[in-house]
Amino acid sequence: MITRFFSNLLSIKSNEWEGVLYLFLVLMVYSFGASFARSIGMTLLISHLKSDILPIMFICVDLLVMVGATIYAHYTKRVSGLDIFSFFLLCSTFFSIIAQFLFYYASGDAYTFSWVYGAFFVGSSFFYILISIHVGSVVASYFTAVQAKRVTGVINAGMPIGGICGGSALVTLLKGFHADPQNLVLVLGISCLGAYALLHIVRTRLNSVRVTNQTIKAGSSRNPLVDMLSSVKYVMHSRLMIFMSLGLMMFVIGNKLLEYQYQAIVYPDVFPDSNERAAFFAVYEIFANLAWLLIQLFLTSRIILKMGVGMSNFLYPALIAGISFILFVYFYWAAKHQGSGSVTTMLVLSICTQFLNQEMRWALRTPANNLLFNAIPPNLWGTNKAFLNGVVFPAATLIASGFLMFATGGVQTVITQVTPYIASKDVSYILPFVVFVMSILGMLIAFPQSAAYHEGMFGLLNRDLFDRRIDFWSGLRSNSLAQVVEDKLSSPDTYHVIAALEIIRMFRMNQFVNRVGNLMLKTQLFDIKSHCVETLASLPQSNTNITYLMEALRQENDPKLIPLILKNLGRFPSVNLSEFVEKLLNHPTPEVFVEACLYLHRHPSYKAKKEIEQRLLKHLEHLDDPNFTLYLQAIGELRQAKYSDVILPFLDHTKPAIRLAAFNAYVRMLEGHLEPHKSRLIDALYNTSSKDMKVLALQALRECRPLEDWSPVIHLLNARDRAVVNESKGLLQFHLNASEPELVRTLFLQSASVQQRFEILSLLYPRLDVLQRSALRRMADNSLKSFIKVTGLLRLHQIKPNNYESVHELVTKILLEIAEEHLLNVVTVITYEAEQNEEFFQRVGRGLLSHSKANQGNALEVLSNAGERYLSGRLLKFFEERGTDVKTINRMHLVLFAEPLGLTEMNYETQLFAIENDMLRACLYYDSLQHGKSNLRLDHLTKSVRVLLLDSKRAALRAQVAH
Asked: Per the CB 3.0–4.6 Å rule, which of 298, 368, 470, 917 could disulfide with 312?
């Protein structure tokens, strides 16, 4: 009962609690010690080195992070995420021991050992930043993209709770026991050891949903700088990383300026005594972390779920913009009225600013920003996080710190005192004004960043993200199209040359005509030559490209290329090569002879066309000629209907190749007069297995009047060959008004396949009325019910291996296919309701059916951002629960549909027999017959089930006889 209460309150599923709890404890224990280090480090730094040193400390921290992040990026490809986390904790432990030892020496001579306080501040900040960077990767390793949106807030709540406990303990030690702050550094090391022990439990009890390091070791370099450069290349071609980098830069500049505002301007005036300041920070830690905790637990996840991962990054810069504007107005008013302002007001404003700048950063910005990495391939997380925190973060810190040093002065250098550029009274309002501008820019960046996140999540569902095409197209980002084509034409890579020729042909870039022509005449590679020929023929007609093609025809000896040149020269009827082509009629290669005949016959100025026809017809007298089909198709290309009687005898030939060639010729020669022969075309749809013949028949039917019965064409929407499907859709689209009633009827048939339904919707969805769309959603809802039911049956079947032992594996496969069919029906309707395309359907469908939880999570995240809420919401609820037992599946069915599923081990067999699937029923009846469990009468079964049963019995009998 308690678990269910907290599950509902915090949106945590029952199967997620163990992982959430352990990671929560790791962060809580670490944060306990980190709160000591933060309060003590800032207090001692300001007390012993003064506030002027703060910009220098910022730079030192980020330069150290830059080096650390470069090494971190390298080892994320070689070492598991938990091992890296453990290493950071152990290093932080040793650092705290060394720092504690140095503080003992520094207490005797604070002036000589003042560097120790700066070193502790830099070192503790360095480890805190690296651990904060890595925590998101560890969480994402154990939870999918959709789960992470819900659980990240609860897991990260360990940090404020640890901060509250740490702050309370620090106040008690300082106030109650009058402890010296610098003697409490060792608490950080003890906390890190505790977190290290908890990580060992995580390693043994939790299973990762992401790829293991072993799968990506091969792609890692031995040089950390090379890894960092690879991340830079990725960033330059990733819209998401570009906007994340810009957003981080705006954030860091604003963060450092605001931190200087309250740490160096306000707090030293309000609390001049270092012990008072440390005690204030400790009290602040308690209440700030308590507020952080409440926000983390009850608001963060809800905000991210409501606004989405992309747009939730808009909220933090909006809050910073609001507080910085208030600070600007207040301090500007105080400076212009020659007053220092109310101490209480300044303290309240500074506390609010610090809370937004520090705690709200961890409560809102960090979780939302970490979730953005889910749209990046997991093997690139380390290098890209290292780039952001090792390059962008330090660069932004240098900008902010440089601005502070040269604006305020007061930094004692080796040579001289830097003169401030801005009067000290003006700094207090100029800094928040600059932060206000940075925050506005951060808000604007959130919009394209959100769009880039959705694109990235969708891209992750494509398994072929990095194929060779990227090598070519990536150059288009940095150079002009013409320059890229020029470079690729000179490439030694054949693929790049062909791709450049395709670009020239696609965009009809006539300026490359000489380049392509010379390449065609010089190269010896058939693939390049053939593409050059087709490219030249596709360019606007000119003397230049015609001359190149004519020259190629004269000097070419390759019998595979000559027909291609002749075919493309036929596009230019103004060119008369009849005299030269006539010589090719004696060429020994049949392909050259046929193409020469067709060239001459098509040319308007050629007179001896009758002779060409007779020469081709003569070849039809030799049926045993291996090139008989070539001549048969050539007769069709003559487009002479008078020869149809010559072709007719071959339409029913025993050889499929001859039948296809004859049918092709028949359709070609009767083009424009096919209506009387429509029955033969329809017969080809029913009675042939040749996809080419079906395609030809479908193309020919476009010239005829609408069919009376569209069922054979609609049936072909389920074909495996895409060309057949496309031609069927083209014919249905061409006569859509006539075919629409039959399409609508088929759409709502229970027997319609997923592919048929998808293709029909691609034709009809914009034409469906409100009632039909409502019926479509109800049908999808019923498919989801069936999917859940079959999933439950599958679970029961898997835990009862002795049931239907002779067909157990086959029944499992059939149930999986049935479940897949129902699930894809739901995704089909979601695709059209969300106004998406076939690519969306394919990627999301593959993702949901994947055995990888990470892929499923990515698919669910794409669904949640698609725009359709009703069906997507139900799928999300079911998949997030990830029920592995029938009890959970029954409960989810009741939650989703408010009706019991009633699936138990007792009625398992009855439910299986109730599924309307012929193959499944045949398997179940066959097993019953094998074991004598049923007095089954075949006449009670459907015809298809009887056929399957009789076939299986005959096969079993034949096996016994053979044995």
From this structure: 368
